[in-house]
Design a protein that fits this description.
The protein is an all-beta fold. The protein has no helices and 11 strands. The chain has strands at about 5, 10-15, 20-25, 35-40, 45-50, 55-60, 65-70, 75-80, 90-100, 110, 115-120. Strands 2, 4, 5, 6, 9, 10 and 11 form a 7-stranded mixed β-sheet that branches. Strands 1-3-8-7 form a 4-stranded antiparallel β-sheet, with no helix packed on it. It is globular. The protein starts with a strand and ends with a strand.
Length: about 120
């Protein structure tokens, strides 16, 4: 059974940085495209970015340049580096595993429980 576990969330001041980690167990990470999504209070879950099996990344235009996704298949781990954080980045962040390098939630089959990121203004 594939399991995903996020960590690294917390409280950070605006302008600061945070790195989230997602560890995959039960299957080799190299078989999956990995995505990150987030859900702010009272809002729908939205796409943060994804990384293909070969390491190609895809971000929405609004986050490009501030967020960086990387993967270490040997460690079965995916990272989300977030820089120049803003108050509006406050959300629960989820990692997900799927088969397509896509911004669409339903293209991802496995999900972690999420980790809270709070940015103080």
């Amino acid at each position: 059974q594939v399991q995903l576990m996020e960590s690294g969330g917390g409280l950070v001041q605006a302008g600061g940085s945070l790195r989230l980690t997602c560890v995959v167990s039960g299957h080799s990470l190299s078989d999956y495209v990995m995505g990150w999504f987030r859900q702010a209070p009272g809002k729908e879950r939205t796409f943060v970015g994804s990384i293909s099996r070969s390491g190609g990344t895809y971000y929405p235009y609004s986050l490009k340049g501030r967020f960086t996704i990387s993967r270490d298949n040997a460690k079965n781990t995916v990272y989300l580096q977030m820089d120049s954080l803003k108050f509006e980045d406050t959300a629960i962040y989820y990692c997900s595993a799927g088969g397509s390098n896509s911004p669409i939630e339903t293209d991802y089959h496995y999900w972690g429980q999420g980790t809270q990121v709070t940015v103080s203004s």
